[in-house]
């Protein structure tokens, strides 16, 4: 199965433009890949973008590669990505910019379990909830996607 996955608030806590704290995604993402699923990173992060607040018209200036930093998070943890911002196979049948997958894991998706506190990881985020990977794993098992 191709699984589309968000980054901020889903894989890590919300700390954009920095990389957020660990919220327990790593082991479950590795488990998904081990079970034959393919991960597609689909995030609002992009490279070379920062709002220039010093200008009147809010132009952008090139400063950091925020998308590359997210991809590096996966690479450093040896979690392979099948696609970045797009399913590479969908170009055979559509030009849509929406990444195609059979499942989407995103903190803003209706029904995705989220929390502000992880006792196991000692993470608290009063700003915005993040994905509860313990509950997501249970759902993935119930769906037959994990053992």
Keywords:
147 residues; alpha/beta; Rossmann fold; four-stranded parallel β-sheet; two-stranded antiparallel ribbon; 21% helix; globular
Structure description:
The chain has 147 residues and is an alpha/beta fold. The chain has a single domain (2-142), classed as HAD superfamily/HAD-like (Rossmann fold), CATH 3.40.50.1000. 21% of the residues lie in helices and 17% in strands. It is built from 3 helices and 10 strands. The protein has helices at residues 25-34, 66-76, 133-142, and strands at residues 2-5, 38-41, 50-51, 60-61, 83-84, 103-105, 114-115, 117-118, 123-124, 130-131. A 4-stranded parallel β-sheet has the order 5-2-1-6, with helices on one face. It has a two-stranded antiparallel sheet with strand order 3-4. Helix 1 links the parallel strand 1 (2-5) and strand 2 (38-41). The mean pLDDT is 89.
Produce the secondary structure layout:
Layout: E1 2-5, H1 25-34, E2 38-41, E3 50-51, E4 60-61, H2 66-76, E5 83-84, E6 103-105, E7 114-115, E8 117-118, E9 123-124, E10 130-131, H3 133-142
Parallel strand pairs: 1-2, 1-6, 2-5
Antiparallel strand pairs: 3-4, 7-10, 8-9
Structure described in brief:
The chain is of the alpha/beta class and 147 residues long. The chain has helices at 25-34, 66-76, 133-142; strands spanning 2-5, 38-41, 50-51, 60-61, 83-84, 103-105, 114-115, 117-118, 123-124, 130-131.
Classified in CATH, the superfamily is HAD superfamily/HAD-like
Give the end-to-end Cα distance, rounded to a whole number of Å: 15 Å
Structural class: alpha/beta
Individual helix count: 3
Number of domains: 1
Q: What would the CATH topology be? A: Rossmann fold
Low-pLDDT residue intervals, each spanning 5 or more residues: none
Mean pLDDT rating: 89
Question: Strand tally, please?
Answer: 10
SSE order, one letter for each helix or strand: EHEEEHEEEEEEH
Shape: globular
CATH class, anyone? Alpha Beta
Radius of gyration: 16 Å
> Can you list the strand order of the major beta sheet?
5-2-1-6
Q: Tell me what portion of residues adopts beta-strand conformation.
A: 15-25%
Largest sheet: 4 strands, parallel
Question: In the CATH hierarchy, what is the architecture at level 2?
Answer: 3-Layer(aba) Sandwich
């Amino acid at each position: 199965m191709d699984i589309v996955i968000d980054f901020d608030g889903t894989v890590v806590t919300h700390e954009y433009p920095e990389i957020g704290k660990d919220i327990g995604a790593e082991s479950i993402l590795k488990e998904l890949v081990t079970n034959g699923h393919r991960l597609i990173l689909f995030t609002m992060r992009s490279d070379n973008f920062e709002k220039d607040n010093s200008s009147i018209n809010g132009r952008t200036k090139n400063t950091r590669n925020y998308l590359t930093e997210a991809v590096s998070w996966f690479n450093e943890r040896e979690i392979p990505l099948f696609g970045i911002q797009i399913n590479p196979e969908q170009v055979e049948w559509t030009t849509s910019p929406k990444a195609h997958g059979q499942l989407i894991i995103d903190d803003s998706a209706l029904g995705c379990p989220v929390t502000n506190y992880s006792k196991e990881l000692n993470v608290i985020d009063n700003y915005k909830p993040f994905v509860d990977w313990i509950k997501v794993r249970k759902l993935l098992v119930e769906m037959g996607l994990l053992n």
